[in-house]
Amino acid sequence: MELINQHTKQIMEGCKERARDAGLSFTDESLEYVVTNRDLLELSPKVMIPTLYDYWVHDVEVLREKGKYELYPHNPYETVINTRPPISFYNDNNPDWLNVMIFYHVLAHIDFFQNNLYFRHTWDYDFTGQALSDKRVIAALRAGKGRWVDYVIEFARSIDNLVDFHGDLEALFPAPERECSAKLDYYFDIFLQTEKKLPVSDYIKEINRYNDCVTSYGEQGEKTFFAEAERRYPEMEAHFARSGESPPPRKRDLLRFILDNSPFLARDENIWMRSVLEIVRTTSTFFQPQIRTKIMNEGWASYWHENLFLQDDRIKGHEVDFARVHAGVTSMPRVGMNPYALGMRLFSHIEELADKGRLSFAFQRLQDADQRKRFDTGAAAGRDFIFKVRENLCDYLFLKNHLDQDFLNFHKLFVAGKRLDQQRNVWQYYVKSRKVEEYRQMMLGSLYHPPFITVDQSKGIEGSLYLNHAFEGKQLVQEYIANTLMGIEYLWGSPVHLETSEAEVTAVRASGAKQEVPEEEEITWQRVLYSMNRKVLSKKKL
Predict the structure, then answer these.
(1) pLDDT tens per residue across span 76-111
(2) Which of 42, 196, 225, 411 gives 213 a disulfide partner, CB atoms 3.0 to 4.6 angstroms apart?
(3) Are 157 and 255 spatial neighbours (Cβ–Cβ below 8 Å)?
(4) In 325-425, which ranges are E strands?
(5) First to last CA, the chain
(6) In 3D, which of 87, 91, 98, 100 has the Cα closest to residue 15?
(7) Binning pLDDT at 50, 70 and 90, where does residue 524 land?
(8) CA 469 to CA 489: how far, in whole Å?
């Protein structure tokens, strides 16, 4: 691995000038390295961070990837990491014309990293330097604690997706102006919901009452509102006073809760484990936005490498080569999902809508197909609008807000179904639906969405840890429950309980008297409680 030569660096600097002229925004400094395919295979398990701490799973993944490479040789073009300065790696056999295209792709990634608000907690420090410091801490601990360090890493990594990423963003970057008082926030967010467990209908009535007080009494509205609230709940004032003594525990952030509240980790002989958990949690939080913006990030980079490369005079004579590489990267599959293709086309679709003024209520209310095709106000606001999309959204909001029926119709997309042809004993794929609601739901279902697990302190008995899984239509992977709970029990130092939902499948005979009529399956969801006590897992229905 070595830095690119001066000739290639000059190409990169030329790409930076053209990218800035087009509106992209990024820092001046960047590091570019030339690597071999095997170098990329060794960096991939560490998420391309060379200084990330060593862990035995990384070595296993390197061996697996090398085995795959021997069977199916492939040529990755580039990869870029969000550091200060940004670091990118390029294959050692890329020609100059291909590097021009790849540099535009990388610069668009850097623009996304440094301007999308989901990455804002990564803007103020260099993660490679932090990772190197963490690596040295773990190496020093291994010298003294041996294999126990790897046990703690493994237990922590089993729950490193259960971090409150959005809570961290809120804590680091609070709103500049506070419209509601701390007392009002406590009353609605904690007192009514957590302590009083008010029904939704009564909660909405309280909100309406507050709005009426503000409308009627202006600046005195909040005082008037609390006069009635304190008459109903005389204990509220005392509860609010106690709430300010210490910050409320992060019950949605299991790793943070264990770090702050575990009696086992508080012992003098176990204090070192807290450093390991903190490192694992920090690393997980750093990569959370990349997981949540995969479609947008790759789509944004593909959109710009196409637009900027086609305008670059350095591609002369390589138009066909570019078309072949670009089509291979951004082709839209009939079944499955290519984030490069979907994201790029959706950005282009949004830009066209904004240019023609179709992001308006006047267009949305049109039902006539011919009128919708002819609708064009000449707003020419597309480029500005996609920059706002790049800044403010994640994959979920990107698809939820902008994936529409016109986009599906234009690209002839559909939801594919699969059925078994029993006569030929093969799987058949068929068009199940062309409705945008079902296609959007399929795309949203494929996004990263860790389980929503909170700590319920009211149910913990004699120091045990009670976890409540808020069921959202997908059950936990049962084969991982035992080992994960065993790791949590070790870190907590007491028994652990997990309340979740599991599917119960019952066969229901379909209508018809003939026996060859297949039976249908009916799924019901049952709340169950897993308990881990001294490495023994038990389960009961609730």
Answers:
(1) 677 889 998 999 988 877 788 888 899 999 999 999
(2) 225
(3) no
(4) 415-421
(5) 57
(6) 100
(7) confident
(8) 17
